Amino acid sequence: MSDDVTRAAALLAEHRNSIDRLDAILVYTLAERFKQTQAVGKLKAEHALPPSDPARESKQIERLQQLAKDADLDPAFARKFLTFVISEVIRHHETFQK
């Protein structure tokens, strides 16, 4: 193998290790987020509050899109991602209501 290929392979391994660490951070962060939203869902169920809060959801989507812009991440992707997360949260909240 040439020196260039060896250096490229080493850089690739470093990038992949970084991606793996970031993936772990994402998973643990999502798990913590869902623990908090589950607590919210239980509280809503105990007090007969609706599982969905469209005003808050809209505000959060706008907030996340701005954060995405600030972070140089595609705001449309951020919106899709948060919309998916919110739909899962609402599904969990509906389960607590039953």
Descriptive terms for the model:
single chain, 98 residues, mainly alpha, 86% helix, elongated
Describe the 3D structure.
This protein is mainly α and 98 residues long. 86% of the residues lie in helices and 0% in strands. The chain contains three helices and no strands. The N and C termini lie far apart (63 Å). The model has no long low-confidence stretch (mean pLDDT 94).
Helix and strand run? HHH
Strand content: under 5%
Mean pLDDT: 94
> Measured on Cα atoms, how large is the radius of gyration?
19 Å
Helix content: over 70%
Number of helices: 3
Total DSSP E strands: 0
Structural class: mainly alpha
Overall outline: elongated
Distance linking N and C termini: 63 Å
Give unreliable regions as ranges: none
Strand count, sense and barrel status of the largest sheet are: none
Summarize it.
The protein is mainly alpha-helical and 98 residues long. The protein contains three helices and no strands.
What layout of secondary structure does this protein have?
Blueprint (H helix, E strand, L loop, with lengths): L2 H44 L7 H17 L4 H23 L1
Helix pairs in contact: 1-3, 2-3
